[in-house]
Design goal:
5-stranded mixed sheet, 7-stranded mixed sheet, alpha/beta, globular
């Protein structure tokens, strides 16, 4: 196995799937010759040609329409939205067309599209680049939403997304692109969509997180274990649609307390849905309310103050203290 960053694991997955299936096409703004803003597609156009890896005009709505049309003709488009904040421009194609394709056609057509988009805070980007807008995607039947937290998962989940017969939104946290390395098999492998991973076993409280917040949760849990001797179980969701509620509920039945951590704003979204489902499925096992630790309900701030806005390990520790005192 090779040591890879997340961006290298993503490139490796794309390379493998382009080589495996000629129906896989990769396109978006600047993904061709320049290899994308973060070089996720570096070298792929040279290897597979400009008919399979190609640049598009700066028009997300047009890119989305192209992806839908190609998908119903039997291709497997991998479409890049240069930054997740630009999803508004193509949301009709995603939610109004691709996600409904199987239902609308009575199963005659599917839309095996993978939408890739970088997002996430902590890197001081301009406005509309870092926003965590995944909550917009959760109420869209037919759409799967994947958010990996590490290189190994990124490769396996991306391959699963490309091979899935329905549209999958694959979100890549910018802070994780090159901040850690991990052993990643060079051969192809898949990780099932909708299957969470317990990254830190514990017995006293359950912490549910995804994306970069998994690392925030683990850091807080390790600190708490050293200073308080209390063990938090950290669950990495890996996909937020579908949710692996079985893993979450089984953990809550063991620990009897739960905290849900997300980078996005508090209202609605993944954390709110998880809290609701824990209440529906495990309320008699809880010894207190389920707590959310999130960003505040404001527009994403300018880079100079985003560190004050994003959830931190200290905020997680304060949340854990509150939950354990209830």
């Amino acid at each position: 196995m090779a040591q890879m960053t997340m961006i290298q694991a993503i490139t490796n997955a794309l390379d493998g799937e382009l080589g495996r299936d000629e129906k896989v096409l990769l396109f978006g703004e600047d993904v061709g010759q320049s290899g994308g803003v973060f070089r996720a597609t570096d070298g792929l156009q040279k290897k597979y040609g400009e008919h399979r890896v190609f640049d598009t005009p700066l028009a997300e709505s047009g890119i989305g329409g192209l992806a839908t049309g190609l998908a119903i003709q039997g291709f497997r488009p991998v479409m890049e939205i240069q930054f997740f904040g630009f999803v508004f421009e193509t949301f009709d194609e995603i939610a109004g067309q691709a996600a409904r394709m199987r239902f609308r056609s009575g199963g005659r057509y599917t839309a095996p599209i993978t939408y890739r988009a970088p997002f996430g805070g902590g890197v001081k980007t301009p406005e509309m680049h870092a926003d965590s807008l995944e909550g917009l995607l959760l109420q869209t039947p037919g759409l799967k939403v994947v958010i990996p937290s590490n290189p190994y998962d990124a490769k396996g989940l991306l391959i699963s997304a490309i091979r899935d017969d329905d549209p999958v939104f694959f979100l890549e946290h910018m802070k994780l692109y090159r901040s850690l390395r991990q052993e990643v098999p060079e051969d192809a492998y898949t990780i099932p969509l909708g299957q969470a991973n317990i990254v830190r076993p514990g017995k006293d409280v359950t912490v549910v997180a995804y994306g970069a917040m998994v690392h925030t949760a683990v850091k807080a849990a390790d600190e708490w274990s050293k200073t308080r001797g209390i063990e938090a179980e950290v669950i990495d969701l890996r996909t937020i649609s579908p949710l692996d509620m079985e893993t979450i509920v089984q953990s809550v039945k063991k620990t009897h307390r739960a905290v849900v951590l997300q980078e996005a704003q508090k209202s609605s979204g993944a954390a709110a849905e998880i809290v609701a489902q824990i209440t529906e499925n495990a309320i008699y096992h809880l010894e207190g309310p389920v707590l959310r630790i999130t960003a505040p309900d404001t527009v994403y701030p300018f880079g100079m103050i985003e560190d004050e806005w994003l959830p931190t390990p200290d905020r997680v520790l304060r949340g854990l203290e509150k939950v354990m005192s209830l």
